[in-house]
């Protein structure tokens, strides 16, 4: 059978997408210039036609018209009829803004219906344009897609995505549906779905013999690979079996594709925007500094809340809210199973209610909020701005609202809008809580995330050449990074965890032991503070002895007990995290743990020295 016959044919591939449609509140960003202001001020003197304005200004009439149209959309000028021509005159709103040195950029948000598709492999979102001529692809419901695909017979295939990912972050939806110079500032719809499995749409992609894909949006590399793979497998099948083997009306051949894990992009940023916080008291000072410096917003996510620790911070938090700082407190602890711990949990819920009542009596109920629905996340972070309009995020091991700041902790503070935006988007996802319903806070954080992502980056002249790679790390990515460290480290690996257990042997210790066996000169050190769960000290000591026999250095850092969670290798790589590397599993929800990977700079060396100095090693 001649393979070239089939290799020269186009293959048509049916591809699934999630689908959403909402009515958004959209603010169009209009950047006004000096000419816009001069035209408005000229109309403030007397109504004029476009011909008159062109003559007086010396500008082409077409340019004058292009200037007048946005001014009309802003509601600052209006058209009136004269005997012989149309005149433009200033409105009351226009007169109110025409006396300044600049025109205000903000306008009233407008309501627009926008729809979007969701890549089932990566959750990337694609805007659907209501004007079909602007699109290079068509979108169909299931029945229509099936009937269209049937006409291609044996030259048709279908991509089936196993366990499709169809719960995009709200910020991703916002960024997708907004055009250039637009900002999404809210929804008009009361209910926002978190998953789009029940509203599917399909496109039919065409794959030519050269592997070029048409009839599809600019999809992710992963989905494009799935489309190309389905087309190739169908060609291979035709080469083997030939055509005419399918009965009329039968379904096209389907080919499975796996989903891709959530992963944030790597940012290359100025070293001067990164600050390492290590030690005990340094974390207490850092939290106080952030509260006092916050200008408009402060968001704290702490896995646990301790009533006494919160009371010690409460006055400063109240003072910040009185100066118009919006404060949102999120926490991760979910209701425990044991009766004794449930009682403690219920006492905490009542205490949080009491704190909120104290806030409400101060008239600050909308300014300072405890969000009672737990996030079920072990991550720890703070997001806030300062008087210089700089936004920063602190990520690490410290439970900010339950710590007495007497244990060794490690965190990283990063002042970079893109990274702050990513963690705000994570906070938006966490804010839906265990009920999984988008709420006012999750929407608010998504809007803030989208806005902050567009802010300019402030770079100091002194450190602009000292560039560091930075990436936010989700829970499932932690263990693969230890595997990467074990495969690439040449001199030293150091893993530090609050707890150790038998569970740590499989995902963490195995690659470390393999690396030590492969390169005996590789120095591998692990440090822990205490056994986890039912593990006894005797059993922990047995694990310690077996690891030391294998050539690893094991440090029990319990005076005071260490709470830091980090991994570093050689001089350039450092991961600071909330994950207990030696006891907890990184499987499960993507944002159940959160870390940050730094590549380059002195941070790995600085942290190792800080640890050694603290424990006098």
From TrEMBL:
InterPro entries cross-referenced by the UniProt entry: PLD-like_dom
Pfam family, one: PLDc_2
Domain Phospholipase D-like per the UniProt entry, residue ranges: 289-424
Name of the protein in question: Phospholipase D-like domain-containing protein
